[in-house]
Amino acid sequence: MKQIGIVCCYFGKLPNYFNLWLKSAAANPTVDWLFFCDQELSGLPENIKFHRMTLTEVHEICKRKIDPELILPKPYKICDYKALYGSIFADYLTGYDFWGYCDFDMIFGDLREFFTEERLEKFDKILPLGHLSIYKNTPEVNERFRCAGSQYTLHQVLTDEKTCAFDEWRGIYAIYQHNGFPMCDDMPFADISCMHKRLTIHRRTSDKYKKPAPDHNHQLFYWENGKIYRAYIDEHKQVCLDNFLYIHLARRTFPDAPDAGAFYCTPSGFVAKTPGSVPSAKEIKKLNAYHGKLFEWIERHIRRKIMKRENHRRFAGRTGKSK
To answer: Would the pTM count as exceeding 0.85?
Structure first.
């Protein structure tokens, strides 16, 4: 079995549902998480390899490994350097066949179900986005962030105080696409949209990118036995199930999460679930309520305006337009 080490950097107070992130990571015992954090943590699962480190200390490693001019003015800027982790954290990645990165506003499903040995043999990069991606751990692959194809020059990525989202479409993904490097980008993950209160899958209209899983008006996501499931009502009014690699809950804040063996992901937070049961149509409609096309059109219209302002403030060369 090929060894996978996923690098995680977080500085400041951890999300209040970190316990669920940790539970879902621990449920993948054949994957290691190399966790660089400035908080004091103990009692972690065996596959969480904890390294207490400040933002300043990580900044020094980045400058030494990549470029003395590299800046790291705030924790969020570290996202631009995720695709560089193979070089930045090379000393910690010895012995791993693949390395990767991930976010903390997400819950993992069964990674090995999708990171099959066949895919690991065939592709140099698996998954397209900064939520979770893994790369073959070779000198050639680890330096591909320097290749042509990105919307940004490497100098801009390293020196612009705003975030360029180099870990996603316009950065490392564009490099792989431009150069024809082997990449698997059609995995079933649930990237939840910021445009609605209801949990819906983020839409992508550009033909450059693989389309996400189809959305359903009545659907409910949940974690159980190490997997992310979606229960949905189909056109025949039957409850059906499918399975995702992970669920990403960007820009959402939730109350403290329950310490439950199984739980629903809802717009208001995480709700303990009775293990072994399939959600009923009534539960699906109640826990992730759909209020109609007009209501959601108004939601998207208002939210796009808000996101356009936020993106001008946080990102270099970004707009609020949904891709």
So the answer is: yes
d(CA 158, CA 211): 30
Cβ contact 317:164 at 8 Å? yes
Instruction: Write the single-letter amino acid at 14.
Output: L
Q: Is residue 46 within 8 Å of 61, Cβ to Cβ?
A: no
pLDDT tens per residue, range 69-83: 999 999 999 999 999
- Separation between Cα atoms, residue 306 and residue 323, nearest integer Å: 16
Q: How far apart are CA 134 and CA 123, in angstroms?
A: 10
Q: Closest by alpha carbon to 223, among 250, 249, 203?
A: 249
SS3 21: helix
Q: Dig out the tokens for 302 from the structure.
A: 């208002």
Mean pLDDT within 237-255: 94
Contact (CB, 8 A) for 65 and 158:
no
| Residue (of 144, 143, 171) closest to 157 by Cα position | 171
